[in-house]
Amino acid sequence: MGWVDRKLIRKGVAGMAALAGMAIAGSAMAQSVVVRSTGPSAGAYPQGKKLPAHATVVLKGGDQVTVLDKAGTRVLAGPGTFTLNGAVNRDGGGATALASMMARGGGARTRTGAVRGATAAPVVAAPTAPENVWHIDVSKGGTYCVADPAALVLWRPDKTLDGTGTLLSQDGSTADVSWRAGNPLKVWPSATVPVVDGQTYTFSSPVGGPVKIRTMVLATVPTDEVEIAGTMAEKGCTAQLDLLANLASATQAGG
Q1: Which tens digits make up the pLDDT trace of 49-104?
Q2: CA-CA distance, 7 to 137, in Å (whole number)?
Q3: Which CATH class for the 131-220 domain?
Q4: Could you tell me the residue ranges of all domains in the chain?
Q5: Residue 132 backbone dihedrals phi, psi, to 5 degrees
Q6: φ, ψ for residue 51 (rounded to 5)?
Q7: H or E element, residue 216
Q8: pTM of the model
Q9: Which helix (H) or strand (E) holds 229?
């Protein structure tokens, strides 16, 4: 066998080894992520735990584990044994709500108000949490993964009146934040308070005590919902995992 033949064989073996490694890594990727867990088995299935495809979840009485998988977001209630194979029916409304919550680029647009003389629309209860997983709740704070620092949005729960607050970075930079009545959203003042990976900020306002906000800037953002939740779990962005868990509870309660 010539030198060229041996070289080609070595390249072929190396290539097959690389492909095998990729296949193993792919099969090891999490197919489900725990976004909330309460009850006796919470230690076995903590928030942020990644589960492989077709994993079996065994729950005791009093357990409630919320998972996000390829089938959507759902609550598993014990006692019982559940296989996370994605073969779970989902109504279109729940899937649409999940896609909307994880959508990027919504910005801080002001919604159009009521038109005088138009038929009155049904009264909708004000949301108690952000409707988009990328928005930061200034009333609670926490650790948040950031997809786009230039388009980061601050959300407030009460939009009835004008609102004000102050954002202070650990590096000393500060900015005033103002909301107009009727709008719960405000773009982060990045020109004066840059969004920095791993940095902690303090938000203060007249309507509540100061809260801490920590930002984890993502270099790349997955397109798959499960991978997004997995990345949030890795970065410790538990505030956003809580939002996903709340969405699951609301969807199942409504359906």
Answers
A1: 989 988 999 999 999 999 987 767 889 999 999 988 765 544 455 566 677 788 87
A2: 59
A3: mainly beta
A4: 30-104+238-255, 131-220
A5: -130, 130
A6: -120, 140
A7: strand 208-217
A8: 0.75
A9: helix 225-235
